[in-house]
Structures are given as C-alpha cells and as structure tokens.
C-alpha cells in the first residue's frame, strides 16, 4: 500500500520500529524513501516533522506548486493527519557519511576534506573523526527545558560527560521529538544529583517536548557558505583512518555539492 512508482523512481512510505519505539538503527529513518530503479540506490527523501510514526498509509502523487507527494499517517501521540512535502521549505537538512579512508601505512596525516559546492542560501558543514570510541554511539532520552538545553537522568550520559570534561564536543543527532532530524554539537554537560543537563551550540529543540537523540564522536570542522572550493577538516591529525560527515542545510535544490576530495600524506613513524 505504501508504494508508488513515477517514471524510474519507486517511492516507499515506511516506518521502522523496535519494541522500544526507537528506530531499528541510526539509518532506518521513517518517512519517504526513493528507490532509483536504474541504479538500485535507495535514498531517504523526507520525514514528517516531529520524528517517529506509528502508522503509515498509501502514497498519492499529485501536481501542486507546494509538492507532489501526499501521504497520511499517525504520529506517536496518536494524532492522525495528512502530510504534504514542502517544496518551499528553508529548513531542509540532510547528510552523507563517507566510508573510512584507511592509511596505506601505519598512520597517515589527514589534511581534510575539500568541497566544491553551490550553496545558494544554505550551507555545507563538514565533520570528521579519526578514532572510534568504545560505547559510542549512545542513545539518550530526556526532555527539552529550552530550545538548546536537554535534561535527562539517562545513565549513558556518564560517558558523554567524561568526554566533555576531557575537551570533546561531540555531535547530537535528534531522532525523535522536538527537533527530530537536526544536528548540533555539545557545548556543556553538567550533573546535579542524578540529573544531567546537556547544552547544545544551536537552538534546535522545542521547549517542553520529550526527545530521543544519538551522541557520536563527530568533530565540527567548518562550513562552506560560498560557491567556492574550500578545505575543512583534520588539520594534520595522525591516524590509521579518517571518516567524514557532510551536512547540508538549505531550501529545495540547495546546496548542491560538485566535488569532494579527501587529502592525506604518509606519516613518518620513525
């Protein structure tokens, strides 16, 4: 019922739920997926604002100045509704993660990711990591006390606070509740009795709403806001691998990435 073909694309409306009502994993997002029948690539296209869905329905393709995909559903509060994609939205977000680029020696010095993009009115944000962290990513539940502050008693925040105290400013990805689909970075973690307070470097939430989010060890590098080639990244960090995450923010059709190039050189290990 939740599929509709248009030309060489098959649109699939789906929700992936576990017994705890969380996504099965960080890549199994609810909403509309697009299967390119020529290349067999499956891409997440959009989710209804607010996060998880309890129920999905058939898809209707229409011709409208506002969008062409219409679908119904039920959100986690039990509210039924009809959703229409918003072609004029200025708050669209998405990201791509590269494979791990391995060193040809014991270690390489990683110089960063160069990006050529047409940004339009949005931005391209580059993140990276050169290490794996035991226990990451972690899934945290809590509530927004403001648009940039989350309160929680989740025990997994002990690891997050330990890393914050050590100087790391890890990434938060909201997967359910107010701000679902948005990324930010931790700017402060405090603890009082059994309650943790996590402050983010951007206002992405909805005060008073519950929230579920991932924390992972992505480092913020920089953002491209011009139609030029710019390099962002690892500043010569030495590691056996480097991995990059490229986040896009903008309206429909923007930004557009033309080219991405990861650069490194062999490190002399003596």
Number of E-state strands:
22
Number of helices: 1
Oligomer: single chain
Global outline? globular
Contiguous runs where pLDDT drops below 50 for at least 5 residues: none
- Average per-residue pLDDT, rounded, comes to 82
The sequence of SSEs as H and E is: EEEEEEEEEEEEEHEEEEEEEEE
**SS strand fraction:** over 45%
Give the strand order, joined by hyphens, for the main sheet.
12-13-16-15-14-17
Biggest beta sheet attributes: 6 strands, antiparallel, barrel
How widely separated are the two ends? 62 Å
* SS content category: mainly beta
Percentage of residues in helical conformation: under 10%
Write down the Rg. 20 Å
Structure description:
- The relative contact order is 0.22.
- Helices cover 3% and strands 53% of the residues.
- It is globular, with a radius of gyration of 20 Å.
- The protein has 270 residues and is mainly beta.
- The strands form five sheets. It has a six-stranded antiparallel beta barrel. Strands 8, 9, 11, 18 and 21 form a five-stranded antiparallel beta sheet that branches.
- It is built from one helix and 22 strands.
- It has one helix at 157-165, and strands spanning 3-6, 9-14, 31-36, 42-46, 53-61, 69-75, 80-84, 92-97, 101-102, 108-118, 123-129, 138-144, 149-152, 171-177, 183-192, 195-200, 210-216, 219-224, 229-232, 237-239, 241-250, 256-266.
- A hairpin with a 2-residue loop joins strand 1 and strand 2.
Key structural traits:
53% strand; single chain; 1 helix; 270 residues; 3% helix; mainly beta; five-stranded antiparallel beta sheet
